[in-house]
């Protein structure tokens, strides 16, 4: 395939002074100017091969070696071979949410769609199910997903925060029960609270998050889905809590709990 020089996307092409050009501003690379070089570099947009660029060089009066210019800038990381078309792994995602988390689910859906992932309706097959709930969801939902070996991500809106994770790939990453057992190790009242999840009246007033925090949390969900699509989540697990402000975020790891048998799925 012919080499079609393309300046790195977003790279500014500027004149620094009478004798130099500058590519980029962070901090940028300075090159010695020559007659016709600026006009030539403006054609480094990934659409023309070297033969066409040589003809353009003649038209603009550039007497240098076009291939040498393109190669030197490519070595410096300023020029790519053609217009970049990154292969972005995508996945199908089912958003399972309650009424109170509808604004967050809408924000997540918009980001997933814009990023190329496929958001499917309830009842359709999906690679990953994202469960969004105001307050901890009942555990029967996650037990069913674990038994069916359906990958799932928990997103909980509680108080002034959104807690994202863990993303569970049954048999490969720690499950929600692992998380509950770890919490029970330091909070002996947690098992009693678990029995009340999903009961009427436990959520008296629905959450009211700032719009900026909702979108910040949606970005974190997108990041989790992107990592899942690339397979970067295998063998590791964590939770991220966003809020109360959009720049407030805490992350902590979640490991397999020795009292949980979910690792047995590896050999099942």
Short structural summary:
By secondary structure, the protein is an alpha/beta fold. 31% of the residues lie in helices and 23% in strands.
Structure in words:
With 268 residues, this protein is an alpha/beta fold. It contains 8 helices and 12 strands. It has helices at 37-41, 50-60, 66-75, 102-114, 139-147, 176-186, 190-194, 211-230; strands at 5-7, 13-17, 20-23, 29-32, 79-81, 92-97, 118-120, 128-134, 151-158, 161-168, 238-242, 249-253. The strands form 3 sheets. It has a 7-stranded mixed β-sheet with strand order 7-6-8-9-10-11-12, sandwiched between helices. Strands 2-3-4 form a 3-stranded antiparallel β-sheet, with no helix packed on it. Strand 2 and strand 3 (20-23) form a beta hairpin. The longest helix is centred in the last third of the chain and has 20 residues, at 211-230. The mean pLDDT is 91.
């Amino acid at each position: 395939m012919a080499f079609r020089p393309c300046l790195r996307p977003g790279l500014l092409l500027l004149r620094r002074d009478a004798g130099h050009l500058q590519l980029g501003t962070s901090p940028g690379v300075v090159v010695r100017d020559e007659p016709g070089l600026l006009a030539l570099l403006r054609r480094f947009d990934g659409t023309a091969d070297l033969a066409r660029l040589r003809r353009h060089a003649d038209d603009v009066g550039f007497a240098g070696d076009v291939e040498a210019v393109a190669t030197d800038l490519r070595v410096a990381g300023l020029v790519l071979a053609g217009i970049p078309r990154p292969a972005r792994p995508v996945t199908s995602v089912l958003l399972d949410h309650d009424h109170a988390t509808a604004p967050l689910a809408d924000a997540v859906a918009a980001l997933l769609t814009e990023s190329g992932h496929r958001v499917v309706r309830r009842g359709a097959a999906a690679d990953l199910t994202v469960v969004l709930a105001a307050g901890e969801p009942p555990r029967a939902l996650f037990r069913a997903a674990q038994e069916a070996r359906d990958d799932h991500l928990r997103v909980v809106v509680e108080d002034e925060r959104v807690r994202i994770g863990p993303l569970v790939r049954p048999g490969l990453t720690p499950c929600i029960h692992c998380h509950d057992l770890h919490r029970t190790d330091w909070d002996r009242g947690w098992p009693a609270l678990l029995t009340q999840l999903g009961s009427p009246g436990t959520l008296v007033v629905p959450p009211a998050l700032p719009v900026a925090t909702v979108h910040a949390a949606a970005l974190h969900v997108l990041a989790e889905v992107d990592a899942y699509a690339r397979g970067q989540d295998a063998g590791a697990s964590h939770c991220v809590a966003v809020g109360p402000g959009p720049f407030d975020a805490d992350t902590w790891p979640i490991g397999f709990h020795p009292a949980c048998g979910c690792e047995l799925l590896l050999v099942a």
